[in-house]
Amino acid sequence: MRTAAVVPAAGRGERLGPGAPKALRNLAGQPLIVHAVRALADARSIDVVVVAAPEGEQTAVRLLLGPVVADTELVVVTGGATRQQSVAAALQVLPDDVDVVLVHDAARPLVPSEIVDAVAAAVRGGSDAVVPGVPLSDTIKQVDPAGRVERTVDRTLLRAAQTPQGFARIVLESAHRLAAESGVVDLTDDAGLVEQAGHQVLVIPGSEDGFKVTRPLDLVLAEAVLARRRSAGVH
Predict the structure, then answer these.
(1) CATH code, domain carrying 72
(2) How many domains, in total, are found in the chain?
(3) Measured between alpha carbons, how far is 206 from 199 in angstroms, rounded to an integer?
(4) CA distance 9 to 193
(5) What is the per-residue pLDDT across 130-178, written as a single tens digit (0 to 9) for each?
(6) N- or C-end of the chain: fewer Cβ atoms within 10 A?
(7) Do strands 165-168 and 98-103 pair parallel, antiparallel, or not at all (unpaired)?
């Protein structure tokens, strides 16, 4: 049995400003999707990468990623209007011999391959769903609708969820079917779908490099991370 990585990459990324779809924005001279898929293809655990591309960009994405995936099987489909729809479209084309699925944001281009392998290993170790997460550094306030503080949340019990999120295939597919039948249409987190379906989600340590590129400042930070890696001889 094999492990597949699904990359929903059809979002526009309005907060990043006008221009190409977010996954096709450049970081250090290459689109975000190239960096993200390279991290997945470099992981020992990934056999197949399925990309849900922006509408009309399937051929361009396939050409971009062909040299990146090397010995990893690549499938490109057209994504949907939401992340949830894009993941569902990718699940439809998974090879039959895939039993573990990782879902990774194209907007997290710098995730270390070690995190990818750790998530896959945790699913193969028996967990239905696995999410990498990092502790929060800010103090967290819970407020009412008027902005008044109701309580200060104990941040030691909180984690910021990252991707790739890993799942037993049967668990993820059934969670997406249940969401569609229940009219849930726009959850931004696959682990949330699995939680709603009644499954336990395990959080394992993530990486500071696994941050999401959402705003222009995040691109500056990503450039700095890449410069640090180059100076350290890491590619």
Answers:
(1) 3.90.550.10
(2) 1
(3) 21
(4) 19
(5) 999 999 999 999 999 999 999 999 999 999 999 999 999 999 999 999 9
(6) C
(7) antiparallel
